[in-house]
Amino acid sequence: MIHTLETMGVGDVKNVAVVGASGAVGEVMTKLLEERGFPVGSIKFLASERSAGKTATFRGERFQIEPLNDDSFAGIDIVLSSTPASISRHFSPIAARAGAVVVDNSSAFRMDPDVPLVVPEVNPEAIAEHKGIIANPNCSTIQMVVALKPIHDQFKIKRVIVSTYQSVSGAGQKGVYELKSRLEAALAGRSAPAPVKFPHPIEGNCIPQIDDFAAEGYTKEEWKMINETRKIMGDDSIEVCPTCVRVPVPASHSESIWIETEKPISPRAARDLWTRAPGVAVIDDPADKRYPLAADAEHRDEVFVGRIRADLNNPRALLFWCVGDNLRKGAALNAVQIAEELLKLAPAKV
C-alpha cells in the first residue's frame, strides 16, 4: 500500500519508494527527503522480509515497512535504493520496467556502460542519459571526486595517491554495533566475541583491508575508487592509487590525498578553487589547530578539505586532507541530490 500525504502544498509531486528503509543509509535517505523538502506526493518503505513489520517515520507520520517483491513498484516515480548488489540486480530493473527511475546505492550497476554513475557536483549532465537506473558511487569515491573536480577542471589531474581512514558505519549498522560491543566488553573486562563484520578486531586497530582482495593485490574497495573515479570524471587517463583502511571511528571517512597535475599548482590556488566549489568547505588553519575532523563532519552535508600543502619536491603536486560523512554525502545525500536533479529534467526522463 502507498500512503498519500495530503498536505504537501507542492505542484509537481513524485511518488517515492525507499528500498532498504530499515538500514543505516535508508534511514538517512528518509530523513533527508524530509529535511530538504523533497516534493513527495506519496511514500512507500520497502525492505527484506526480515524487516517487514518495522516502521519508518516521515513528516511525523509512521509507516509500516513492507516486504520487497516484484509488485512493489506500481505507481512509483522515483526509487531510492540501498540494498546488497545481488538484491539490486534483481529488483532495480523490475522497478525501471514499472516506470520508476531507480537511484541505486549498491555496486550492482556502477560500471555498467549504460548506467550513469553520478555525483551532482561533478557530472550532473550524465543524469539525462539514464535508462531507468542511475548508480550512486562508493562512499570513499564520492567525497574524493567532489574535492578533485574543481582542481581537475583548472589544472588537469594526472595522478592521485589516496589513503583512506574509513569509519565502521561504512559497514552498516552491524559494523557500528561490532565496534561498540567490543569496546564495552573490553571496558568491562569481558572477552569479546569473534569479529563478524571485520577480518580482525576493530578496536585499537587500523585494518588495511576493506572488502575482499581482488586483482593485483588491491581490494574490491580500492578497485571501486580506481574505476569509479575515472568514470565519474570522464577521464580514463587519471591514475588512481588507493589504500583503503578501516579505523575504529563511528562515523565519517577521512582521506589523505596526494595529487599531481599537468600545470604547476599552489596551495593558494587550490584553496581559492575549493572556497568557491559547490559542496566543499575549507577548514585550513594549522596554526590554530583547525583542520577537518571526522567527529565534526558527522551529520554535515559538505566535503571538508584542509592540511592543504605543496609537495616540497614537485611544483605540480599537492597534498590535502579530506573528510565527509559517509552516510550523508557518501551515500544518502548524494542519492537524494540525484533525485532533485531528476526533477529538473523533462517529465519523460523522470
Report on this structure:
The protein is an alpha/beta fold. It has 2 domains: 153 residues, Rossmann fold, CATH 3.40.50.720; 186 residues, Dihydrodipicolinate Reductase, domain 2, CATH 3.30.360.10. 29% of the residues lie in helices and 25% in strands. It has 8 helices and 15 strands. Strands 1, 2, 3, 6, 7, 8 and 9 form a 7-stranded mixed β-sheet that branches. A hairpin with a 2-residue loop joins strand 4 and strand 5. Helix 1 crosses helix 8 and helix 3 crosses helix 8. The longest helix is centred in the middle third of the chain and has 17 residues. It is globular, with a radius of gyration of 20 Å. The two termini are 22 Å apart. The N terminus is likely disordered.
Structure described in brief:
By secondary structure, the protein is α/β, with parallel strands linked by helices. It has helices spanning 24-35, 85-97, 139-155, 172-187, 220-233, 267-276, 294-297, 328-342; strands at residues 3-4, 14-19, 40-47, 55-58, 61-64, 66-67, 78-81, 101-104, 133-135, 157-166, 239-246, 253-261, 280-282, 303-311, 314-324. Strands 1, 2, 3, 6, 7, 8 and 9 form a 7-stranded mixed beta sheet that branches. Strands 11-10-12-15-14-13 form a 6-stranded mixed beta sheet. It has a two-stranded antiparallel sheet with strand order 4-5.
Features:
alpha/beta, disordered N terminus, globular, six-stranded mixed beta sheet, 15 strands, Rossmann fold, 350 residues, 2 domains, 8 helices, seven-stranded mixed beta sheet, Dihydrodipicolinate Reductase, domain 2
